[in-house]
Amino acid sequence: MPVSSMASSLLLSLSASSSSFLASSSVSFLPTSSSPHASVAAGRGRPSASILRALRAEATTLPVISFTGEKVGEVSLDIKSASPATARAVVHRGLITDRQNARRGTASTLTRGEVRGGGRKPYGQKKTGKARRGSTRTPLRPGGGVIFGPKPRDWSIKINRKEKRLAISTALASAAVANDSFVVQEFDEEFATGPRTRDFVAALQRWGLDPKEKAMFLSTELDNNVRLSGRNIGTLKMLTPRTLNLYDILDARKHFFTPSAIDYLNSRYGTTVFDEYEGDTDGEDDGEEGTVEEQEEEGITEEAAQDETEEA
Questions:
Q1: Within 13 A of 311's CA, how many CA atoms are on the CB side?
Q2: Closest CA relative to residue 30, chosen from 56, 54, 1, 7
Q3: What residues contact residue 78 under an 8 Å CB cut-off, 6+ apart?
Q4: Largest alpha-carbon pair distance within the chain?
Q5: Is the confidence at residue 43, as pLDDT, over 60?
Q6: 3-state secondary structure of 199
Q7: Cα separation of 168 and 97, whole Å?
Q8: What DSSP state is assigned to residue 81?
Q9: CA torsion 130→133→136→139, rounded to 10°?
């Protein structure tokens, strides 16, 4: 299945929910050619500065459920999200980038000049009544080369760090607003004696989840027994901050977190994280450029200090 069609199906399934971020009827799913963000969604060109400026923070209250399924409190999820006018474009570009960068690009076929053999003309040019043949490795015969076949290539697409974070935070905020998310108290002690998949499935049912429905569980640290208990559940994705990705967020219908994971999301994708991007309008990834500039400034400062010492 092409990457674009897979992304479309995921986003369409997400837009079917009651989310106010991605399910707005006034926002088209894929930007049209007249949209200023059309090149961004298709993976061609730089993102517009308006996409990165149009941020908003809307705190969402998530219920906290105990291991037995009782509501014991509430917690606030306060993360940034894109505006409804650009949310789908940002999330679509982030999803396309993740899926396309995962391609190895190692598919390769042989042309008629690369297939072994076929150097001798199989039969004479005339007086045979057959079509003219110059080689047995012609693409028209079995065992011949491939016309316009795939060759190894690089499928990777560049995406700015700020844009990738915005896509993830927008997807999480959309799921939270649609009441598809909740928080579960730490339950590592419940599996201290050993892994038990049956108990994990029973816990999912107590939390109101259908084991046959796709769900995503985010925890800052996965206990080994908890991981072993949930890995045999094919519809459950157990993620950590290291493995958190946009595809699994969009692919899941329900999302539940631990309290420590909520603290991580608020610190990683909260208001203070995006404040540093408000004055940056060039749209470039400043992950390493800032470090290089700081090193150059430090080098200039050290040279100036050495010159003043020599003059003294």
A1: 6
A2: 7
A3: 57, 59, 60, 266, 270, 271
A4: 99
A5: no
A6: helix
A7: 12
A8: E
A9: -100
Residues facing residue 238 across a β-bridge = 217
State the pLDDT confidence band at 5, using cuts at 50, 70 and 90.
Answer: low
> Could you identify the residue written with the tokens 């950590």?
240
Q: How far apart are CA 20 and CA 88, in angstroms?
A: 11
Dump pLDDT digits (tens) for 201-234.
999 999 999 989 999 999 999 999 999 999 999 9
Model pLDDT for residues 243-296, shown as the tens digit of each residue: 999 999 999 999 999 999 999 999 988 866 555 544 444 444 443 333 334 444
Looking at residue 168, its amino acid is I
Q: Read off φ and ψ for residue 36, nearest 5 degrees.
A: -70, -15
Q: Give the pLDDT of residue 180.
A: 85
What is the pLDDT confidence band of residue 118, given thresholds at 50, 70 and 90? confident
Phi, psi of 65 (to 5 degrees): -115, 140
> CB of 66 within 8 A of CB of 208?
no
CA–CA distances in Å: residue 143 to residues 21, 108, 161, 192: 54, 16, 47, 60
Residue owning tokens 């967020």: 249
| Long-range contacts at 125-130 (CB < 8 A, ≥ 24 apart) | none
Report the pLDDT averaged over residues 52-56: 46
Cα-based distances in Å from 51 to 140, 162, 275, 298: 51, 11, 15, 33
Give residues with Cβ within 8 angstroms of 198, minimum separation 6.
none
Q: How far apart are CA 150 and CA 265, in angstroms?
A: 41
Residues 6 or more apart whose CB falls under 8 angstroms from that of 249 comprise 168, 171, 172, 175, 216, 255
CB burial of residue 160 (10 Å; 0-12, 13-18, 19+) = buried
Q: Is 293 helix (H, G, I), strand (E, B) or coil?
A: helix
One-character DSSP codes across 262-302: HHHHHHHHSHHHHGGGTT--S----TTHHHHHHHHHHHHHH
Task: Tell me if 80 sits within 8 A of 166, measured CB to CB.
Answer: yes
